[in-house]
Specification:
- The protein contains nine helices and no strands.
- It is mainly alpha-helical and about 230 residues long.
- α1 runs antiparallel to α9.
- The longest helix is centred in the N-terminal third of the chain and has 22 residues.
């Protein structure tokens, strides 16, 4: 006699990823409210397009790190490109054999582009560090001109990271968030953004991911053995 009645989800434990947790309403409200407060505060400082002294000095401290770090910090920056969450979501869907798992990762791309370019970059128009801070900022493969608030790389990286948390065991959940923070630091090192650009990007990405997790991923967490996030 075979155990054919074993629930499909019970067999997912051996796979690399599985949808492990629903986001509770309280956690959703806390994340969104906290991230929104950070975004509003960062926007208020950057509103007039200038960079305060303390922000410029923080940027210079990171941007002035040794040049030998450039190839090392190039790699984590790739987690902030638009293709990263699409590839990551596809791999998770393949691993779990549940293709709907890729939906929030794929939707992240058009949502991010629409909100960022049609709203956020129009509300706060702040140029990149070589223009707003000074020509002493070292640009390591980063554009010199263009609107830098919020950081698109930080937005994508943090949204990707928070969505990944839904699929990881508790002990591994800090890893993608730490990698997203490294992306933010790498963008400062590259001279691509000011400090509040990446802070705002982290906040926006967190909001995007919380909304996608709560509205889409929660629909597929039905097992009683999976707890809330």
């Amino acid at each position: 006699m075979t155990m054919s009645s074993t629930p499909e989800r019970a067999r997912f434990g051996s796979r690399l990823f599985e949808l492990r947790a629903a986001m509770s309403g309280a956690r959703f409200l806390t994340l969104v409210a906290g991230a929104l407060a950070v975004l509003v505060a960062a926007s208020a400082v950057a509103w007039d397009g200038t960079v305060p002294r303390w922000e410029a000095e923080l940027l210079r401290a990171v941007n002035g790190l040794p040049d030998w770090l450039e190839p090392i910090l190039w790699f984590p920056q790739q987690l902030g490109v638009l293709g990263a969450p699409v590839i990551g979501g596809t791999l998770i869907a393949w691993s779990t054999r549940r293709w709907h798992a890729a939906v929030p990762f794929v939707l992240l791309v058009p949502i991010k582009l629409s909100v960022e370019w049609l709203f956020l970059k129009q509300v706060v128009e702040r140029e990149r560090p070589p223009v707003t801070v000074g020509p002493d900022i070292v640009t390591r493969g980063a554009p010199i001109h263009g609107l830098g608030f919020p950081s698109g790389h930080a937005t994508t990286a943090f949204a990707f990271a928070v969505l990944l948390v839904a699929f990881l065991p508790a002990r591994w959940r800090p890893v993608p968030v730490l990698l997203a923070a490294l992306v933010a630091v790498a963008r400062l090192y590259a001279g691509a953004h000011n400090v509040l650009d990446v802070v705002a990007g982290a906040a926006v990405g967190t909001i995007f991911a919380a909304v996608l997790w709560y509205t889409i991923l929660n629909r597929f967490v039905t097992d009683t053995d999976l707890g809330p996030a």
